[in-house]
Amino acid sequence: MSLTIDAPEGVEIAAFFDDLVPPAVRQLVDTRPLRGMHDVTFRVRFSVEGVGDWLVSVVNATRVAVKRDRKTPAHLTVRFDEASFRRSQTGEARRINVLEMLYGDRKRFDRLLGVKGMLQVELDDHGEFRRLALIFNETQDPAAILRVGYDDFCDILDKIAYPPMLLLRGRMRIDGNVALLLRVQGLL
User: Fold this and answer.
1) β-bridge mates for residue 126, sequence order
2) CB < 8 Å & 24+ apart, contacts of 159-162
3) What are the backbone angles phi and psi of residue 41, rounded to the nearest 5°?
4) 9-38 confidence digits (pLDDT tens)
5) What is the pLDDT of residue 101?
6) What percent of the chain has pLDDT over 90?
7) Tell me, what's the pLDDT at 10?
8) 24: helix, coil or strand?
């Protein structure tokens, strides 16, 4: 089961989070239970600049809540500008499934808790740049910048591409705190 939301191009962002995300996450939780997570709440915030913030929570591995929320601490915040959000979540483009990438078991969750910092991702989408930031545990320092092609990044998330090989081939660049990137790679 994959967390791919079939959102029509031009969907209102509020409708995407309010109407489409909750049933998709509920289906993911129902078909792929979070092992060992019955005593925790897993929170991911999606922040679309200039539009709003939505907090997706999975409580005790069973209950799903999606609400507008800027204040509740999140384990991961994914920040997009509106154009990058639309490209990554609607239309014909390959989806960036950040929530599914982190979804797993207690061991993966505990590794996530150990990551602090912000990874800025600059995606080259055939000459048009898309940006997103992954902020771990409400901490923006240390910081690293990852520059990679949009399709290569999707391949990393889909476990088709291996980041060290992309580095060796010159298809990915890293600036800033490399240790942060190595910790994040352990989550992918």
Assistant:
1) none
2) 159/188
3) -115, 125
4) 788 899 989 998 898 888 888 887 777 888
5) 60
6) 35
7) 80
8) helix
Strand order across the beta sheet in which 117-125 lies: 63-68, 52-59, 41-48, 76-80, 128-136, 117-125, 143-149, 172-176
- Over residues 38-50, the pLDDT tens digits come to 888 889 999 999 9
Element (H, E) at 128: strand 128-136
Closest CA to 1 of 26, 36, 38: 26
Its sign, for the CA torsion 120, 75, 32, 104, is: positive
Distance separating alpha carbons of residues 23 and 44, to the nearest angstrom: 16
Domain spans, the chain: 13-185
Which of 116, 125, 108, 131 has the alpha carbon at shortest distance from 58? 108
Q: What is the pLDDT of residues 61-75, one digit of tens each?
A: 888 999 999 999 999
- Tokens 């080259």 belong to which residue? 124
Taking the C-alpha atoms of residue 86 and residue 166, their distance in angstroms, rounded to an integer, is 26
Cα 68 from Cα 17, distance rounded (Å): 9
Q: What is the DSSP letter of 114?
A: T
Query: Residue holding tokens 């999707």?
Result: 154
